[in-house]
Amino acid sequence: METWYKIREPYDTVYDDVKLHLFGPDWYKSGDKVHQTHERTHGINARLRDKHKVWDCWYYVLNDTAFCLNMPDGLRIRDIARKVPREMRKSMYDTYLTSRSVLNYWDDEPGYLLDELTAYHNGTLCARELFTENDDAENRYKYSKRFFYELLEICEIIPQLFPEGYDRSHFDGIMEFMRAAAL
Question: In the prediction, which pLDDT does 148 show?
Fold first, then answer.
């Protein structure tokens, strides 16, 4: 993966990893390190997508590693939402599948769900590193981890909507990595 700022030594923390791949706009500096890591992950994903247009979606998962994916044409977030069983409709369901802002801006971009998943992945790992420092970070870790697993469960439904003949190997690779994340 190409990076925009490369250091020679390994990253000391998850926060440093993400921060050094995307520095710049002040809005990435709002909130605590967990929030910044989450939001900067979105920025890294967007930069990769803009730079490498042959792939619809890019997902940065730390350590100079990103996954790329083209989602099938015509797949919508509202279609995914309909497939989610009632017992799985928790807080992430409303936030990322049925809210007006998602349906207005992201409905035709189902890769947005994986963008959120990778942002929660990176943010959760950042919180895990920090939670020994204070109780608030421990709470952030628990919430971030819960949101990650709720979204992971929802993303597992997406292949049910893939058209016949769609090469899902990239999607399967991302999901395999996420399931093995051991948060």
Answer: 94
pLDDT of 8 over the 60 cut: no
Q: How many domains does the chain have?
A: 1
Confidence band of 7 (pLDDT split at 50, 70, 90) = very low
7, part of any domain: no
Is residue 160 in some structural domain?
Answer: yes
**Is 4 contained in some domain?**
no
Task: Name the residue range of residue 110's domain.
Answer: 14-179
Cα separation, 112 vs 103, in Å, equals 11
Whether 19 is covered by a domain: the verdict is yes
Euclidean distance between CA atoms 128 and 114, whole angstroms: 21
pLDDT digits (tens, 9 = 90+) for 92-119: 999 999 999 999 999 999 999 999 999 9
- The set of long-range contacts for 112-117, using a CB threshold of 8 Å and a minimum separation of 24, is 112/77, 113/77, 113/80, 113/151, 113/154, 113/155, 113/158, 114/57, 114/59, 114/69, 114/155, 114/174, 115/42, 115/45, 115/57, 115/59, 116/151, 117/59, 117/148, 117/151, 117/152, 117/155, 117/178
